[in-house]
Amino acid sequence: MSTKSIAIAAVALVAVGIGATVWYATRPAADDPFAQCRVSSVGGGAAAIGGPFELVNEDGVTVTDKDVFTKPTILYFGYTFCPDVCPLDNMRNADALRILDERGYDAQAAFISIDPERDTPEVVKEFTSLFHDNMIGLTGTPEQVKAASMAYKTYYKKQEDGDPEYYLVDHSTFAYLVFPEIGFVDFFKREDTAEQMADRVACFIDAAG
User: Fold this and answer.
1) Which residues sit in the known binding site for Cu cation?
2) Binding site listing
3) Best label site of 53, 87, 168, 209, fewest CB within 10 Å?
4) Are the C-beta atoms of 168 and 159 separated by less than 8 Å?
5) Residue 136: which domain range?
6) CATH number, domain containing residue 201
7) Cβ-count burial of 71 within 10 angstroms (0-12 exposed, 13-18 middle, 19+ buried)?
8) Are the C-beta atoms of residues 180 and 204 closer than 8 Å to each other?
9) pLDDT at 164
10) Single pTM value for the model
11) What is the pLDDT of residue 96?
12) What Gene3D superfamilies does the annotation carry (predicted)?
């Protein structure tokens, strides 16, 4: 299966899996403090996505979500062996951070590996260092990674019919905006550009006061 086919299949499966949880709305709720920033809405409210987790950071230290989300964070689930989707998405996320940096906003990115079998803290650290100094790499046990993935309603599945060493992993490609104390506030699609992401992150930061 080609990389393009993998990406399309992953997105399709996420659409089926999340289904009624996420949909695009033209009119945000009037009582939403971030209404002017949103281009999407979440079934059940923002609290339906996100939650506590425990993972291992790129320095080998066990951390919780509270340790990670110390500032507005663009969160992405992927893996370092991903041939093109993950590098492209993480470069876009890093570019959004650079735009925010230039505008005077303090934000960061976080990358959670969904391939803990290969993505050790050392491997994840090398990967994130390619994109931005303010990108945090996270991995963990299969159980820890699965719990974090379930909290954010993401999808991933190892391809069992490939090479046992050079296998690929189908996965969803949403990026999430998470604030300390508040939690998940919005998500980004693959077609969102770095400029669009930076504009929306800045809007949320301004609205949060």
Assistant:
1) 82, 86, 171
2) 82, 86, 171
3) 209
4) yes
5) 3-208
6) 3.40.30.10
7) middle
8) no
9) 82
10) 0.84
11) 98
12) Glutaredoxin
> How many domains would you assign to the chain?
1
Phi/psi of residue 100, nearest 5 degrees: -65, -40
Q: CA distances (Å), 203 to each of 39, 86, 105, 173, 192, in order?
A: 12, 26, 10, 22, 15
CB–CB of 136/56 below 8 Å? Answer: no
